[in-house]
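Backbone geometry:

***
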Amino acid sequence: MSWFLTLLAVLGVVQAAVIVPGATWTDTSGNVIQAHGGGFLKVGSTFYWFGEDKTLNSALFRAVSCYTSTDLVSWSRQNDALTPISGTMISTSNIVERPKVLFNTNNQEYVMWFHSDSSNYGAAMVGVATAKTPCGPYTYKGSFQPLGAQSRDMGLFQDDDGTAYLLYASDNNQNFKVSRLDANYYNVTQQASVLSGSTLESPGIIKKNGAYYLFASHTTGWDPNPNKFFKATSLSGPWSAQADIAPQATRTYFSQNAFDMPLGSNGIYMGDRWRPSLLGSSRYIWYPLSWTSGSPQIVAADVWSVNIAAGTYTVATGTSYEAENGALSGSSQILTGSGFSGGRAAGWLGNGGSVTINNVQGVGRDQWVALYYANGDSTWRNTTVSVNGGPSVMVDQPNTGNGQTVLSVPVKLNLRNGANSITFSNGQSNYAADLDKIIVYTAN
C-alpha cells in the first residue's frame, strides 16, 4: 500500500460502525473532529488524519491537527502536527490550508505540504514542513511559490514508483498545474502538465488500471459547485474534457473535494461541507466513488460502511416515509414538483406550519434518520424534530440551490420498538425547508 493511500473514517458518533455523511463526527474524547481540508496516511497498522483546526471559526491558522485510528472507527486526537510561529508565514495572522503528508523513503522522514498564504490570500504559496514521526510535531522549512508561480488550493500525489507531484491552482486560479517534486519532496523541479483556463481547486488523484483520474472543484469561494473529474494516461497529459461525478444540480451534494482514495475496483470521495459563518461546524461528506459505469460517480449513500481489506463498501438500506402522507398542521400545505419523490412534498413548514409522520417503525434504540428536503434560499434553514411528543432537536438544512433540488441531512433519533410519531418544524418562528420524505435506518 502506498504511503499516500488514504483511509476511511467510520464516524458520526463515537463507536459508530457506519459512515454518515454530514453528521457531527466526534473523537474518542467526545470532541468534534477538527480536520478540515484533510489529508491521510497509513503507517503500519495506524492511520493518521491531518487537517485544519477551525475551532475558532476563523480561516486564520490555529493548528494542523493529527488524529490516529487503528480500527477506522474510533479516532483519537494526538499532539498538533503543526502550530503557529510568530513572524513567519505560519503565524496566527496567516493561512494554512489543505495539509497533506507523504513519507519520503530517501530521508526516512514525513514531509507535509500545505497551502501557505497571507490573510487576504495574496501571497499564494506552498509551505513545507518535516518530521521523523507521523504526527510530529513538524519543523517548518519555509513557504514559496513553486517554479515562481502562484499556488493556492493544492494536493499531493505519490505515484507507484515513489515520485511525488504537487497539484495546484495557479495564476490567479485560472490555470491548474501538476508539477514534479524533487527526490526529497522539499521543492518542485518541473511542471508536468497544465490545464489552462480550467479554474480548478481542491484536487486529488486516483490511479486506476494505468490511468490517472484527477478530481477537483471549480472556484466559487466557500459555496459548493459541481465537482469534476479528468482522465489521462500520463501525468504529462493530455487530460480529457471535464465530466461530472454527481448530478450537477446537487453541487456535489453540497460539498467540495478534499481527498480521494482507491478502494478495490472503486474509490472514496472525501469532501467538506463548508459553513463559512461557522467554519468549525463544517461537516465531512464522504461517499463511495463507483467505477461501475466505466467512469467515477459518487454513490449518494445516507448510511454506509466500508471493508478496507476487501476493498468493498456496503450501502445501508432503510424504510422511506413520504412527508406529504403525514398529518399537516397550521399553515403547512402540500407542494407539487418534479424534483420531489412521488411529485409531492410538505411545504410552508415552520412559522406556524408543521407535519407529523405517524407509524414510523423503530427498533427500540438510537437510529439514523435522513431528512430529504429542498431549500431554495441562498442561506441555510433549519427544522425542529420531535419524537413521540418529546423535546425537539434542531437540524440544519443547507441551501439546495433551488426549490426542486432535494438533498438529505442526517439526525440520530431514539425510536421506540414499534410505531413512532415524528413531528417536524413545530414551535419554530423561522421557516424550515420543504420536506420531501424521510428514510429510517437500522444500521449503526
